[in-house]
Structures are given as structure tokens and as C-alpha cells.
Automatic annotation (TrEMBL):
Function according to Swiss-Prot or TrEMBL: Glucanases play a role in cell expansion during growth, in cell-cell fusion during mating, and in spore release during sporulation. This enzyme may be involved in beta-glucan degradation. Active on laminarin and lichenan.
Origin superkingdom: Bacteria
Species per Swiss-Prot/TrEMBL record: Pseudaquabacterium pictum
Compartments reported by the entry: Cell membrane; Secreted, Cell wall
One Gene Ontology MF term: hydrolase activity, hydrolyzing O-glycosyl compounds
A Pfam family reported for this protein in Swiss-Prot or TrEMBL: Glyco_hydro_17
Keywords from the UniProt entry: Carbohydrate metabolism, Cell membrane, Cell wall, Cell wall biogenesis/degradation, Glycoprotein, Hydrolase, Membrane, Polysaccharide degradation, Secreted, Signal
GO cellular component, one term: plasma membrane
GO process annotations (BP): cell wall organization; polysaccharide catabolic process
Name of the protein this chain belongs to: Endo-1,3-beta-glucanase btgC
Signal peptide: 1-33
Family annotation (Gene3D superfamilies): Galactose-binding lectin (2.60.120.430), Glycosidases (3.20.20.80)
Classification via InterPro entries: Beta-glucan_modifiers (IPR050732), Galactose-bd-like_sf (IPR008979), GH (IPR017853), Glyco_hydro_17 (IPR000490)
Amino acid sequence: MMPNSFRALHRAPQRSILSAVVVALTATLAACGGGDSGGYTPLAVSQTAERRELPQALMTRASINYSPYRTAASASDLGSEVITPANVLQDLRLVQAAGFGTIRLFTSSIFSETVLTVIRDNNLDLKVYLGTYPNPVNSAADETANQVELDAAIRLAKAFPDTVLAVSVGNETMVEWSTHKIPPETMGGYLRKVRAAITQPVTTNDNWLFWASVPKVIAETVDFAAVHVYPFLDTFYNATKYDWRQKQVAEPQRAQAMIDATLAEAKLQFNDARKGLQKLNLGSMPMLIGETGWAAVDTAGGPTLSFRAHPVNQKLYFDGLQSWVAEGRRDTQGPKAIFYFQAFDEPWKQGDDGWGLFNAQRQARYTVQGLGTCGVTWACEAGSYTSADAVKWVAPTLNPAVTASRYTLFASTATAGEQLATGLRWDPFVATGYADSSTAPLSSDGGNYLLVTPNPADFGWGLFLYSGTGVTANLSNFANGRLNFSVRSDGYPGKIEVAITTDNEDREGQEAFLQIAPGEMGYCNTNAWCDVSIPIASFLAANPKLDLRYVNFRFTIADRYSFTGKPLNLTGLPPLRIDNIHWTR
């Protein structure tokens, strides 16, 4: 477990990281995106009889997003992972056994030809919604790479006409929060180029927020709309977007009520996307859900999804989607397909992993286990569940307020009248080392101290003292007090950070980090012990939403480079010695 700020720093835009692989490819510039020449179709196809109908197979089969990466541990490893036909065949047979008949691929120039060839050579009854992955253009080389990607999609759509049902150009490239934006005018040119060269229907995949205000240059170019809805994930980024907690529902029914509320929000988002098309008199355009899903694991390093992420909750949402798509296929305004996100976990996504119906070891999760036989159809992930095991929001437990004048977290010498914190543990982020030490130099109180050896990630490091079981301390009596500790460092550069984290009534973790330079609040880096004393009021000023009745992370020491003014990827930091950590009233 870690504070949200570390999760956010560690979490890359994982569904956009393929850019690092695609941009590495080069070829001769074939055309410039955004123009109306070079074979692009200039007409507004979606307002004419030219609009291509969705194939029946796309509107009758269960659908899922698929990527074959298994071993890459980070984005930088993707290019070196070898995608073998044997592994792809294993994957696709598992996907088929789970009842899926259509897969969506994200890119055309990396592994899609292998996937399509495996389907053909093994006579698999699978269809493909082929993706192509252009990236922002900052140079001629970027545009060249994009044209290579588009040309690959065209070639594959022509080479596998019976398998490729439709083609999508771009993935979340135009929504306002995209980290890899492409202007709609440029994307429109890419769409026209691909559409002019193939016979399949063409679109772009993007978030519902984009489709809700879709520009004409896109809406009048595509044959259908592919909409992403992630209300489950929205609960982290906008906790008040909808009532996901369902506090008013009795606990035994609350988990299902939370799922129902999330499905209702997904439908609202989809309908908002429909309204965006209606504004352009395109309300009859077919629509599908290109991505939606539910994490089975609250993965460290990503958005905090406690009370939500769990294998049983994943199944409840998945089952609800099956009902929705059945309704949508009967309703002209509903989704004609729902591509579930996703088939398999991918370790390279790190904090954004854990969404697969199968884990990275190709073990079936609870959601699909009942569709086959464990040990026969597939290996099954460990754990036995029933619907009663679904997690749900629960109110925080308010413990009695600490009345002692001192609340001690770490010290070798007892102090009269103190209350010693119990049940706590240190938890480093990444691999920062820490250990009790009584070696020279002696601690500030003559006993042990905590030796902290930074082993930073690219953005920094951190070490937290907290309750691993979630038990909070009621330190409301310390609002006018101080957080104190002794520190010794031999020239640690610049600022360090000290933080506390609390829960609150809504179970939204709140944190406050303070950046402290040598000479401030008693901090020094002169290879001598110095006593740091921080007013609790300073933390409250940094984040007024802190609730001292529910303190979980009692003490955090860290260095997030973007906040302390250090360059990213800084290494070679000297150790810090920490001692005598305590709160005083």
C-alpha cells in the first residue's frame, strides 16, 4: 500500500505506451495526415449512403481486448519480448474457451500479423477488430512511423478480409485528458486514408467524453463510434461522479448495488456519447463499447481501488455487461458489441495491471472459471469465492482518541506519559532499503536508529510507517501539536519530504507532503544529529481535507524529485538515519 501521490507518479499512461514501440519503426513517408488528397475520401461518409454496415459477426459474438505480452516487466521491455505463435495460439484457445468470438488488437505493425496468421493457420473461429496506433507528430520521423502503422493496417485488412471485421485508427488520442494527443484534423486524414484503401468499416476508439462533443471532421468520416467507458476507474479520479459507495444500501446487498450503480453510470456515459452524434444529426450511427472493465486486483502503483477491485466484483460487472449488450443489440440506440478490457494481465503495465480475465500466468480468474473446468479447460487462479465475498464500501472505524501527551512511533528510550504505537510496519516504495541499526554513529538517544538507504525509481523514493491492516489512530487531540523526529545525513542534497496520510468518512485517503530544506524546521544535512519539529497545522494547511481522527500513515519520509526540485532518474543518494519519531500535543 502507498499514498495516492506515489501511485499517480508511478502510473504511466499504460494504454498509450505502445508509442515507444511504434515510433521506433521507420519507413518512407507515404502521405501527410489531415489532407484531402493522396487517396483520401473527402466526403462526409456518415451522412451518405456510403456508410458501411457493421458485419453481423461483430454484432453477435462476445468481444474482448487482447494483447499478447507476458514477460515484459516495463514499457522499456516491450520491444525485446518475442511474441511466439505458440503462445498466441494458447492465448486464443483460452479466449475461445471463455466464449469470445471477436478480439480487438491495439496496433497493426507489431504483433497483429502473428495473431491473424495463427487464427488462419489453425482454423480458429475468431474474428478481429484491428487497431492501428498513430502517435503525436513532432517530427518527420514521427509522421513516417505513423504512415508505417497505417499501411500495416491496410495491408492486413486486405490480406485477411474474412477475419478482419473492422479497423480502428487511434486509441484515446483526442479526449481532453489524453497523454498522446493527435488533432482531430490530423486523425481525420488518417481515417480517410485507411478507409479509402479497404472495404471494412472504419472508426477511431476514444473515451465517451470525446464522443460527447465529437467534431464533424471525425463524426462525418467514421462508419460507427467506438466508445470507452470506465466508471469504475472514474471513482478514483472523480469520487463524486456518481454514488458508487451506495451507503444507504444494507451491507449484504451493497456490493451488488455498487455494481448496478456503476453499470447505470456506464450507460449514462454511453448515452452522452450518443447525444454528441445526435447534435450532428448522426443519431442513427451504430455504436459499440470499445473498452470497459473491472480490475480484479488493487495493484500497487496504480489508482487506489479499495472496496472495489476484487475477482468477485469483476465477475458481477462482467455479468452485468452481458445483459447490457443483449439489450443493446435489440435497441437501435444501444451498443452493438462490448469489448471487455481485457483478456490477460500484462506485467509491463505495473500499477495499471490486474484487469485480465486471466492473470499473466494464463490462469483463469473467478469471472470465467465457471465456464470451464479447472485443470481441464484451463488452470485456475488460486482462491475459492462465492458472491458473498464481493468487496464493498464500509464506513471507517473511529477509535478512541489518543489522550497521552506524546504518541511514539520509533524510539529506543521510553518517555514518561507516552503512548507507544503498535501494529505498525515500514513499507518502502520500490526497493528503498531500511533496517534497524545500532552501529556508529550512535543514535540520537544512544540506541537503535533507522538506516534508510534510498534506491529510487525514476521519480524518487519513499518510506512509510503505517498499519498494514488499515487500523487508524485517532490523533484529533494533536491538531495543535507537532510531528518530531531526529535525522542525520552526510550531505543529502536539497530538500526532503515528510508526510502524513489519513482516511476520512468517505474512505477517500488524504495526504499532505511538506518539502523541507536544510535550515527549515530544524532539518540539517551536516552529518550531525538534528531534531526536526513540524507543526501539525502545516500539514492541515497543505491539505485541509486531512481528518486526524483517522490517521493511517503516521510518518512518511520521501523525496519525489518533481516536488523537491531534483532531476528525474537521480541516483547515488547518501543514506539517512532516522530516530525518535513521535507526535506531541
